[in-house]
Amino acid sequence: MAMIDIKDVNKWYGTFQVLTDCSTSVEKGQVIVVCGPSGSGKSTLIKCVNALEPFQKGTITVDGVSVGDPKTDLPKLRSRIGMVFQNFELFPHMSVQANLTIGQMKVLGRTRDQADEHGLKYLDRVGLKAHAHKFPGQLSGGQQQRVAIARALSMDPIAMLFDEPTSALDPEMINEVLDVMVELAREGMTMMCVTHEMGFAKTVAHRVIFMDKGQIVEDCSKADFFGTTRSERAQSFLSKIL
Ligand code: ADP
Ligand code: MG
């Protein structure tokens, strides 16, 4: 069974159809890269996966749990899916350590000691243990994004969703975040990553999805995607970003 299964998903914002018949799946341990022009529905699609956005037609299941089923415990489901956004979204008034522990204590019921130990382990993994007592504003963008990843990991997620995690960063900070993501991928994390970092896709993606105007236009192995079989629309998009 797929870890994330998206079937015939359609979504409208009012009368505007933002997603049309989107279907794909991510197996456990797979890394899927989602790319496509601005406004093609990439963010909307991954927000549907953890129910940050409702959809009107189709089904999405995560680890067998149906996201659109009104009986599903959405806060519980969301607590199992890590999400990393373009703009980090750390709590600015809390220290790094508090950012790492609050969800673990409030949502998972861990004690402060347990949460500290767990959070610091992940902070160490992203190379920022020495910064635990700083506030987000005292860190660079790349460091803040690594804290955001550590925070998501400290909830022991079954899958991670990334929405353009490096696109707000200065160029020299992009690699420090991608390195963490590559390591995570190699450890077998199930990941759905919206990104235009094609080097990342070439290194770790199992499949690449190309979206345009709310549709999944291509969903293929990276060899096929970067090879010769891709559609004209994907080719023209790639020629602009590569
Ligand atoms: P992408 O992430 O690929 O840039 P989005 O999923 O953010 O695309 O947006 C897809 C389309 O939906 C865009 O045309 C955008 O303007 C529109 N859209 C996004 N969010 C909303 C919203 N809350 N209300 C209405 N339209 C929206
Ligand atoms: Mg987006």
From TrEMBL:
<keyword id="KW-0547">Nucleotide-binding</keyword>
<keyword id="KW-0029">Amino-acid transport</keyword>
<keyword id="KW-0472">Membrane</keyword>
<dbReference type="GO" id="GO:0015424">
    <property type="term" value="F:ABC-type amino acid transporter activity"/>
</dbReference>
<dbReference type="InterPro" id="IPR050086">
    <property type="entry name" value="MetN_ABC_transporter-like"/>
</dbReference>
<keyword id="KW-1003">Cell membrane</keyword>
<protein>
    <submittedName>
        <fullName>Glutamine transport ATP-binding protein GlnQ</fullName>
        <ecNumber>3.6.3.-</ecNumber>
    </submittedName>
</protein>
<feature type="domain" description="ABC transporter">
    <location>
        <begin position="4"/>
        <end position="238"/>
    </location>
</feature>
<dbReference type="Pfam" id="PF00005">
    <property type="entry name" value="ABC_tran"/>
</dbReference>
<dbReference type="InterPro" id="IPR003439">
    <property type="entry name" value="ABC_transporter-like_ATP-bd"/>
</dbReference>
<dbReference type="InterPro" id="IPR017871">
    <property type="entry name" value="ABC_transporter-like_CS"/>
</dbReference>
<comment type="similarity">
    <text>Belongs to the ABC transporter superfamily.</text>
</comment>
<keyword id="KW-0813">Transport</keyword>
<keyword id="KW-0067">ATP-binding</keyword>
<keyword id="KW-0378">Hydrolase</keyword>
<dbReference type="GO" id="GO:0005524">
    <property type="term" value="F:ATP binding"/>
</dbReference>
<dbReference type="InterPro" id="IPR027417">
    <property type="entry name" value="P-loop_NTPase"/>
</dbReference>
<dbReference type="InterPro" id="IPR030679">
    <property type="entry name" value="ABC_ATPase_HisP-typ"/>
</dbReference>
<dbReference type="InterPro" id="IPR003593">
    <property type="entry name" value="AAA+_ATPase"/>
</dbReference>
<dbReference type="GO" id="GO:0016887">
    <property type="term" value="F:ATP hydrolysis activity"/>
</dbReference>
<dbReference type="GO" id="GO:0005886">
    <property type="term" value="C:plasma membrane"/>
</dbReference>
